[in-house]
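INFO  loader      accepted 1 record
INFO  loader      residues=634
INFO  predictor   begin
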Amino acid sequence: MRISSLTRLAALIGLACTQALAAEPSLTLRPWAPNLDAQALSFLPAGTGDARLAASERDGLLLLDPQGATLAQLKGSFTSLDSRAAGAQVLVASLDNARQQAMLVGLDPATRTWGEPHYLPARDFAVNGLCLYRDDADNLLLFLVGEEGKGEQWLVGHGASLSPQPQRVRGLPLPPEAQFCQVDDGANRLLVNEENVGWWAYPAHAEADVSRSAVAMIAPFGDIKGAAGALALVPGGVLALDPKAARLHLYQQQGQAWAARASLALPGLKEPENLALRANAKGLQLLLRDDDSGRLYEGQLNWQAQASAPDPVLPSVAAQVQSEPVGRQGDAADDPAIWIHPTRPELSRVLGTNKKQGLLAYDLQGKLLQDLPVGRLNNVDVRPGFKLGEETVDLAVASNRDHNSLSLFAIDRRSGELRELAQVPTPLKAIYGICLFQPPSGEIYAIANDKDGTFLQYRLSAPGAVVKGELVRQFKVASQPEGCVADDQRQRLFLGEEDVGVWAVDARADQPATLTSVIKVGPQLHADVEGLALYQSDKRDYLVISSQGNDSYLVLDAEPPFASRGAFRVGLNAALGIDGASETDGLEVTSANLGGAWSQGMLVVQDGRKRMPEQAQNFKFVPWAKVTQALHLP
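INFO  predictor   done
INFO  writer      dumping tokens
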């Protein structure tokens, strides 16, 4: 029995080896279009026809039939080439040598006509290459690869339309010897070559952090013998040229890494410089150019990469307004609060902390109205109806990291003007987050936390106009918290433990602080858990959470069992020139009708990476109606 089992195992291994050998990638090449002068080649995007594109220094941009005959010509001198489908149309990007500018143009393959060219502004660096990227919100963006490591990302269109005024989104440090790039739209991944080092992968999303990982390196650190040249992408795989060794390398994605699948010789080519491909029934159809001879080749490769499951695409909403940038560079803006004017909602204000400077107040158009330089304020919250002696004011309270104290501010209920009231000292060693709680009885409590997990609850009062803070409760979580928000009506406190999740606890000072899990860090909620806010209306109450680890915002029912209603991102608003939001610390939301776009309420999020243009951090104002629509909230 044992011998029989081993025999069957050996037979299976032999069969697997035979199948592996049979499936070993192979490439056939033949000369193509011998009379064509082209520096870059491309197939039309899938679904737009069987023709090809070429960029020629001598003949311009060309639409070619499968045999290489010209079907349509845009005269000029061009190098570098990329395209994306736009319905039945094709949007083409290239470099205009005469103007030394990146150009975009529409092409109708059916009528064989070129549209009107659109140019990016001239850059102060030489552009070596370019590539297009269509994000999950249907924005069309263009990457420029320049000399000395200079790179840029531009917003150049939306849907099927090119923008008449392209907008620079961000600068991007790229390898100093980069010339070629390609983007995998589905994976939001930019790949760039570094000739004497290898190929690198970067996050392509406009709001992504600038980071990179190696795809493949030159020997002795990898399998590349000569140089890292042009590349082309398929879902789950990369094809890349080594121009010095005249070889084509195939890589299969495996998780976050890349595995070498094969290295194929390119007979007849001395310096392969250009690579284009498209999938067909036999595998992959290729176009190559030999820079040494200028000859063009067509090939067939019997290989397909195994596409990995794509990350779920979260719906995107756009900000309607953004605040002026805060007055300090770096990680400065942190947490917003919304003050509602009691009689004229359009005069409401958005407060925001600058943790390098103080407290800021903006109108609903994002204009800075007040700047109170009182110290390094981290989080802020507001409540109405604070008795300041004989006077009634609205109250803003912030955590002050300069003094490990509570900074209190009075808000004039008619004008919205803020003034500093007092400091309430705490014994905390590293005060961090804060939120306010106001039960039906009307008194106001401040709940502050420390980076060590300690929470202190203070009853705030001001008899005789002298502010006092009475410590009434203390409890602790196991690791670093920050964000918290109180449901005044249900007397429930939500708090975030950054690497763990969100907890609920009774907010009343005379009740035990028993923690109940609301949601843990996992597939939906990505650490760090940051800002928390409550959207409360006559119909529904929602808890909104900043899922900082994947630049998204999670919406839960604010009552047990705290069911998830989905997550969304704040993407760029192409029409208004407002970038998206990412790496969000604090957020706030209100259901109050503030008029206009804010008739169903407003969401305010801190933007950790201000782009388009790149400036100091700021706050983004999002109509809650857009969130309702994106998540199909009841």
